[in-house]
Amino acid sequence: MDKIKMKTPLVEMDGDEMTRVLWQWIKEYLLLPYIDLKTEYYDLGLENREKTKDAVTVESAEATKKYGVAVKCATITPNAARVKEYNLSQMWKSPNGTIRAILDGTVFRAPILVKGITPYVPTWKAPITIARHAYGDVYKNTEATVPAGSKAELLITDKNGNETRLPIHDFDGDGIVMGMHNTDKSISSFARACFNFALDKKEDLWFATKDTISKKYDHRFKDIFAEIFENEYKTKFEEKGIEYFYTLIDDAVSRVVRSEGGFIWACKNYDGDVMSDMVATAFGDLAMMTSVLVSPEGYYEYEAAHGTVQRHYYQHLEGKKTPTSSIATIFAWTGALAKRGELDNIPELVNFAKALERASIKTIEDGVMTKGLAKLSTIENKTLVNAEDFLLAIKHRISL
Ligand code: NAP
Ligand code: MG
Q1: 217 exposure class (CB count in 10 Å sphere: 0-12, 13-18, 19+)
Q2: What CATH class has 1-110+297-400?
């Protein structure tokens, strides 16, 4: 069989620990035998981030702007323990944070549904996609501890040097204070990304904030969404028979739990961070969740929603076989390859990506799975496999 040819390279962002091991296996067993894989490789592993003073992360994001589509392996976000473990010269920032800050955009996270794994919420029949605003708020904050007797104010200096001072708090005792921001531009592109994604998927879009309490900050999000919807999307939504609706975050949470799924839930940055873990877990497992960052200019970065699976990696280093699931990382690759195929008009590449997704799902539905999934699956006669054998079982089921 001739290998599928690619035109434009994918931006390949390699990562850390167990997912770095999976990354190699996925390429070796599932991609390279079928595709003349064309990638521009960036090593975002922590050692190389240290070596390049994190320049490699910025370069990989710039390359994504150049080529349009990237696929990213999970990476370590260093904390104090990691600084020691890897002998780092500084506590490098989260690569995802750096990439999101450069590309802007919205992160869409959707669970992968398979037969035999039933959501914890019995009414959920179809996936719920979380659309997470990936800019600003608490992720780009300034914060401080404040000693007793201090006074905190918000100071805004406009371009003419005029100052506005707003009181925050007079501290009788010790305390804490935080400043954060967002921009109309980023909120507007978040709104458009969500509306476009809803049209693309033909699914309703829900959006919620805490605008009753945050009358300026959260209210601005609500107003921008409403204005853009009214002016640019209302008719298109009507034509497709889908709906946009806004509600309070508390109300949204309770409605989501009572819903049947099958919609997109747009969330502010922090809400999206925590709610996507809730939704992923309730649908089964973090290892069954895909994630794609869509920038306002139409750049795409695909990844798994889970981390580097550190505990498994240490077992792997001891020579043990681990039950790590590669599903979400495979779907990051298939998402990126299908998008590349679509943009470059290579139907064989799109078809291959779909075939690999079908083979992955069929493997689990045939009862062949790793330990974590087996705990959730109600299928009888399960065969438990390790990470590498799971990939081989998928390969065995690829039919083009
Ligand atoms: P994690 O790597 O997602 O793993 C947490 C636990 O979830 C694992 O110990 C494992 O449970 C289970 N798990 C996650 N993915 C799995 C998979 N593919 N197959 C089987 N089980 C899986 O999160 P973490 O331990 O909090 O973080 C580890 C490192 O990942 C950290 O350095 C963090 O900075 C980084 N991280 C990166 C990203 C990213 O790059 N997008 C996201 C999150 C975290 P058991 O141990 O019980 O088997
Ligand atoms: Mg989270």
Answers
A1: middle
A2: alpha beta
pLDDT in tens, 241-297: 999 999 999 999 999 999 999 999 999 999 998 998 889 888 877 788 889 998 878
CA of 305 to the centre of ligand 1 (A): 9
118-141+181-283 — its CATH code? Answer: 3.40.718.10
Residue 136 has which token pair? 């600003």
Q: Which residue has the tokens 């438990």?
A: 384
Task: State in Å: Cα 277 to ligand 2 middle.
Answer: 6
Are the C-beta atoms of 70 and 301 separated by less than 8 Å? yes
- Specify the domain boundaries for CATH 3.40.718.10 within the chain: 1-110+297-400, 118-141+181-283
Q: Which two tokens stand for residue 261?
A: 């799924």
d(CA 18, CA 97): 21
Pick the more confident residue, 287 or 178: 178
Among the atoms of ligand 1, which is closest to the Cα of residue 74? 40
CA 86-87-88 angle, to 5 degrees, is 90
Ligand 1 touching residue 106 (CB < 6 A): no
Determine the length of the chain. Answer: 400
E strand segments, the chain: 4-5, 10-14, 35-36, 39-43, 69-72, 106-111, 126-133, 142-146, 151-157, 163-170, 175-179, 205-209, 244-248, 261-267, 289-294, 300-304, 368-369, 383-384
Strand arrangement of the beta sheet that strand 261-267 belongs to: 39-43, 10-14, 69-72, 300-304, 289-294, 106-111, 126-133, 261-267, 205-209, 244-248
Establish whether residue 290 lines the binding site of ligand 1, counting it when its CB lies within 6 angstroms of any ligand atom. Answer: no
Three-class secondary structure of residue 7 per DSSP: coil
